[in-house]
């Protein structure tokens, strides 16, 4: 089956950058970064513990933001903990990067946090989740450094390969390459982009990540706390590093300054993609030209209309997201049950699309229109999962 063509469109304005990913002309992902509210996920800080909470197995850590960062005991690593953890009980890690908390299995023993961390202690931590509302950033000492082909795990000897690389021979080849070059005591995740790449390309990526980690450690040792030690790449450069793949036809950017920055970054790390970077020169805004702006407007609206005339309402709070399905203008042509099933099935597709487009995760509650038939309920459930 032919793979969908992929286009990455970057709209870089003075105070806001937007990155849209289109597959076969359909908007499937939208990322936005504003200058005054820049993404902090992936940033690394020297932090200072300001409060230990034994009852929550957590601590508040000052990292220089308005609100203190929140560190769970399971997101804190000490050399002794690493040494005592059985290799078979390694935390389960994501197949691809997106700085996340690595979870220890429930049966893994974690000493009381007051025995691990004390007030006033300095810690090197990484932001795993941006501050939201009244909550400070979620932080971890499980520091991971993403490259183009690899993710370096500075805190664990865990090794893994993206599940998207399915060929057993290719997995074995990549495994042998990375196992031979990864530093002692550190781990790595092989990213999907590594598939088919040469040993030299993968080794160059590892060398870069190891040098970066050495630089971060040296800077951390001489810096006070709280202090920013390493800032993650801007949205445009992250798009080149994380979103570009062999299926990507082009990266289109509408700013000469951003185009120069992307080309300089690509020439250093991904020289083979230079000919697929294009500076947009059209008269109309780039998002209008590719039909993205109208989809962005839909993505910012709580109410999303379905083609049938029904609609869904997406409500986000700090704790969870609620999606409500409604019949709206659709009255159907047969029974109420058939009408309900049709709208619910149509809503499933739109909900999945909107959740990805809006980058919504966590707890999600979907309130479908009631159905009497168990068979119909199962049909909607099967479509969702």
Secondary structure layout plus pairing:
Blueprint: E1 6-12, E2 16-23, E3 26-34, E4 44-53, E5 58-62, E6 69-72, H1 79-84, E7 122-129, E8 138-140, E9 144-146, E10 150-153, E11 159-161, H2 168-181, E12 187-190, H3 199-222, E13 227-230, H4 235-243, E14 248-253, H5 256-269, E15 277-279, H6 286-289, H7 293-300, E16 303-305, E17 311-316, E18 321-326, H8 336-357, E19 364-367, H9 374-384
Parallel strand pairs: 1-14, 11-12, 14-15, 18-19
Antiparallel strand pairs: 1-2, 2-3, 4-5, 4-7, 4-13, 5-6, 7-8, 9-10, 10-12, 16-17, 17-18
Helix pairs in contact: 2-3, 8-9
How would you describe the overall organization of this protein?
The structure is a single chain. The chain is of the alpha+beta class. The chain has 3 domains: 6-35 and 233-289, eRF1 domain 2 (Nucleotidyltransferase, domain 5), CATH 3.30.420; 44-230, OB fold (Dihydrolipoamide Acetyltransferase, E2P); 302-384, no CATH class. The chain is built from 9 helices and 19 strands. It has helices at 79-84, 168-181, 199-222, 235-243, 256-269, 286-289, 293-300, 336-357, 374-384, and strands spanning 6-12, 16-23, 26-34, 44-53, 58-62, 69-72, 122-129, 138-140, 144-146, 150-153, 159-161, 187-190, 227-230, 248-253, 277-279, 303-305, 311-316, 321-326, 364-367. Strands 4, 5, 6, 7, 8 and 13 form a 6-stranded antiparallel β-sheet that branches. Strands 3-2-1-14-15 form a 5-stranded mixed β-sheet. A 4-stranded mixed β-sheet has the order 9-10-12-11, covered by helices on one side. β18, α8 and β19 (364-367) form a beta-alpha-beta unit. α2 (168-181) crosses α3. It starts with 5 loop residues before the first strand and ends with a helix. The model is unreliable at 79-107 (pLDDT under 50).
């Amino acid at each position: 089956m032919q793979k969908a063509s992929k286009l990455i469109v970057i709209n870089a304005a003075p105070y806001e950058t937007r990155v849209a990913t289109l597959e076969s002309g359909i908007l499937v992902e939208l990322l936005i970064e504003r200058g005054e509210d820049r993404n902090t996920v992936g940033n690394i800080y020297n932090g200072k513990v300001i409060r230990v909470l034994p009852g929550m197995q957590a601590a508040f850590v000052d990292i220089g933001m308005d609100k203190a960062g929140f560190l769970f005991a399971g997101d804190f690593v000490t050399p002794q903990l690493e040494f005592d953890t059985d290799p078979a009980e390694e935390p389960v890690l994501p197949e691809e990067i997106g700085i996340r908390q690595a979870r220890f299995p429930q049966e893994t023993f974690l000493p009381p946090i007051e025995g691990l961390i004390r007030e006033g202690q300095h810690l090197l931590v990484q932001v795993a989740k941006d501050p939201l509302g009244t909550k400070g950033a979620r932080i971890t000492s499980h520091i991971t450094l993403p490259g183009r082909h690899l993710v370096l795990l500075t805190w664990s000897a865990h090794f893994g390969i993206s599940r998207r690389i399915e060929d057993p021979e290719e997995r074995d080849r990549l495994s042998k390459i990375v196992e031979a070059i990864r530093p002692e005591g550190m781990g790595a995740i092989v990213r999907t982009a590594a598939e088919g790449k040469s040993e030299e390309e993968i080794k160059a990526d590892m060398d870069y990540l190891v040098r970066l980690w050495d630089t971060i450690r040296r800077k951390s040792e001489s810096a006070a706390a709280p202090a920013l030690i390493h800032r993650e790449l801007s949205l445009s450069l992250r798009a080149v590093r994380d979103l570009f793949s062999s299926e990507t036809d082009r990266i289109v950017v509408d700013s000469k300054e951003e185009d120069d920055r992307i080309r300089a970054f690509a020439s250093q790390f991904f020289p083979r993609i230079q000919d697929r970077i294009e500076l947009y020169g059209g008269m109309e805004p780039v998002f209008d030209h590719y039909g993205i702006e109208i989809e962005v407007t839909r993505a910012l609206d709580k109410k999303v209309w379905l083609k049938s005339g029904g609609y869904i309402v997406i409500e986000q709070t700090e704790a969870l997201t609620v999606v409500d399905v409604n019949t709206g203008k659709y009255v159907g042509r047969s029974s109420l049950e058939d009408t309900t099933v049709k709208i619910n099935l149509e809503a499933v597709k739109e909900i999945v699309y909107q959740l990805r487009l809006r980058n919504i995760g966590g707890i999600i509650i979907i309130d479908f229109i009631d159905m009497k038939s168990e068979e119909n309920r199962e049909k909607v459930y099967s479509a969702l999962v």
